[in-house]
UniProtKB/TrEMBL annotation:
<feature type="domain" description="Transcription regulator PadR N-terminal">
    <location>
        <begin position="14"/>
        <end position="83"/>
    </location>
</feature>
<dbReference type="InterPro" id="IPR052509">
    <property type="entry name" value="Metal_resp_DNA-bind_regulator"/>
</dbReference>
<dbReference type="InterPro" id="IPR036390">
    <property type="entry name" value="WH_DNA-bd_sf"/>
</dbReference>
<dbReference type="InterPro" id="IPR005149">
    <property type="entry name" value="Tscrpt_reg_PadR_N"/>
</dbReference>
<dbReference type="Pfam" id="PF03551">
    <property type="entry name" value="PadR"/>
</dbReference>
<dbReference type="InterPro" id="IPR036388">
    <property type="entry name" value="WH-like_DNA-bd_sf"/>
</dbReference>
<protein>
    <submittedName>
        <fullName>PadR family transcriptional regulator</fullName>
    </submittedName>
</protein>
Length: 109
């Protein structure tokens, strides 16, 4: 996938991933990685930024398998941001698809 496409939609995917369930970092990396190719070095700075912008809250949970895990929870502000990005995505998607369909491309021939 084109890196710029991925960068543009990654925040929305992360927000949607946390919409219904709190998750810890590696769990998010695994889930998001099923949709777009992403690694921890990309995702953790995004999680830090979204937390600093108050879209997420964090809390620690002790783990039987090692150190405590930091969980991310969506805030009310985060839900508002997710809804706004989702609306932007649908508008963008519809406009781009309409343009593609109306364009004279080799795929039509």
């Amino acid at each position: 996938m084109n890196a710029q496409f991925k960068k543009g939609v990654l925040e929305l995917i992360v927000l949607l991933s946390l919409n219904n369930k709190d998750k810890y970092g590696y769990e998010l990396v695994s889930e998001v990685g099923k949709i777009v190719d992403v690694n921890e070095g990309t995702l953790y700075p995004l999680l830090r930024r979204l937390t600093n912008e108050h879209y997420f809250e964090t809390y620690l949970v002790e783990s039987k398998e090692g150190p405590s895990r930091k969980y991310y929870r969506m805030t009310a502000i985060g839900k508002e941001r997710m809804k706004a990005l989702l609306e932007d995505w649908h508008t963008f998607y519809e406009r781009v698809n309409r343009f593609i369909e109306e364009s004279d491309t080799d795929e039509k021939r």
